[in-house]
Amino acid sequence: MLPSIHQETLLHTLDVENNGTLDAAVAGIQITNPICAGETTDCINAKKNVKFELTYADGSSIRVGDILYAKKNENVGSSNRQLKLTITYSKNTKPNEVPKNSIKLTGYKAVILYEQGYLG
Fold it and tell me: Sorting pLDDT into bands at 50, 70 and 90, what band is 6?
């Protein structure tokens, strides 16, 4: 389901937890764009105008080097972080660019790579 053009937003929350014994740091972030079956006008417009954003729950950016502390080190920092996936239409979307037919965007993928071990 896509959000409507009227600035409706779809939100998904995700929990990331380090139950291990070693602190971890973000080593990389890989994000792939969604695909749409077919090259119809509706698919082309949706891929152009639907925006996916992955942030921490407070809206701050996920950055390489961000630390996720091990459960045993919770007195130093949090061993879990809540992430937010926000799906919206671009503010520049024109009414005639909204899909008129049902479409399915698939393949959106976000991978956060963590490294564990010495982080000093």
Answer: low
